[in-house]
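ERR on first pass: missing label on line 2. Operator R.T. fixed the label and resubmitted. Corrected input:
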Amino acid sequence: MTTQSSAPHYGATVSIPPRAGIGLRAEHYDEVVQQLPDVGWFEAHSENYFGIAGGRGGRPVSCLERVREHYPVSLHGVGLSLGSTDPLDQRHLHALKTLVEHIQPGLVSEHISFSSVEGRYLNDLLPLPYTEEALRHMVDRVSAVQDFLGRQILVENVSSYLEYTASTLPEWEFVAELARRAGCGVLLDVNNIYVNAHNHGFNPSVFVQAIPVDQVQEIHLAGHTVKTFPEGVLLIDTHDHRVCDEVWDVYREAVERFGDVPALIEWDRELPALSVLVDEARLADDIREVRCERIA
Amino acid sequence: MSALHKQLREQQRQFANAVLGENDAPMCAEIHETPSDQNRFIPQQGDFTSQQGGFTSQQRGFTPEQRVQIYRNNNFLGLQSALEAVYPVVKKLLGDEFFSHLVGSYSHRYFSFSGNVHDYGSGFSNFVKTFSGLESLPYLTDVARLEWAYHEVFHATESRVLNMDALARLGQQSADTLQLSVSIACQRVSSAFPVLRIWQVNQQTAGEGSDSPIDLDEGHARLLVIRSSDHVEIHPVDDGVYALFSALSRGKTLTEACGQALQQEPECDVNAALHYLVAHRMVVGFSV
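pass 2 clean. output:
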């Protein structure tokens, strides 16, 4: 059970339920396995389970296997550099495919961004210019990844702190059109929508309402940081706070529009106690349930 | 692809160069602060006003350089937290401020070439060795090597047990060419300093006695770092065991490796040493 090669496969993929899940972080491995907290599912950052130097995953994978025995799991990539004009990193893709085949996740997601240029990587998700050229490129890349993995992926909208003068499409049109052309799903990050709405001056509703209902298969929720400068305020997507009221409002609107979609609490820095994440997930569930009861 | 995505490639190159601190100037021609009104696409959509929802234009007075600076910070903080996770003892020995300074220099000099941030930092111990201002901590580079070995082993899958029955079935004639393969989940670290003690007393969980001074002359360390069940174990071993493992990992035959073990430690019980390596899954396979 502790080695990847000898571990059993988990049979049929267990789909992600329309409940709130939380991100799986190394600091919580033991607690999660011992306490089995009442959350719907876990999301794991794919690269944490790749291993390094040919080591194939190690202790993180054995923890993920145990979590997977008890919960549906989604795999969320942060380093594939999907939007880069560099060739897709075949080693990275193979590692992802191996992990996907092993863990049988309910969902696999990546970002609408790039991280690498001429082989050099930035530890960040850099936005693309929203042009027809970039859109065609992303469609090709998403299709290539989906073909390689033999399954659909979701693509997530990212936070950004600048826009390209070359952009000819609004971000929401780019996202919706990418999903339509590539046949992928959308992972709608409502915190990123809120952050961008503030930083670039648009109404978050415009974004939410522009995404076709059937495209959204997962929603991300996170906290951000409000940075005040002499010139004004910028919001930075830091994943180190509770979700703020304004982002919950965007979530309410998203739930209203997209219905019973799984939501995820992301928290990456200044990681709090596991109970705080579970509590945030409960808040997300409450919002979704209120909506569903009303509809029923 | 190159012809198809020429503009996109150039846009990405300029963005990355600006973030990584190269060719700042041309980047400003391509990536602007939130677009000015004449070429802004959003007003043409007709479903947006900048006053709606409390989003006024006041937050849009940033220069492109200021906005790029946020990406520089993000990139740096990401790499810093990656290195902090791998090198907590180095950080503790140096203090937050100096560690941050060290990371700044390292990340400026060594780019990441992988989309897996756990790959980043393999050259940190060598960098530490030559970094000015660290001469008073001669053991620091070995502590960093131990922490990287720990990191590699943490991310390595636990080894299977060597098939001793198959090994026993080999005839005596194979003895001279027999090679044993070492586990990828086992790394070796040697140092002229007591780095295991230094590592132990600087753990966050270190309890009583962790304040007691360490005599740097108390002896060298020969360490094998191995995945075991849910943990990473650091085994201090005798010179003979260490020499045996080192020779096997360099591809020496068992006969040669035993010779080197005895050379390092004439009293070494090579049989016991070999059993030790097998019992702890440090040796996992063989070929003749």
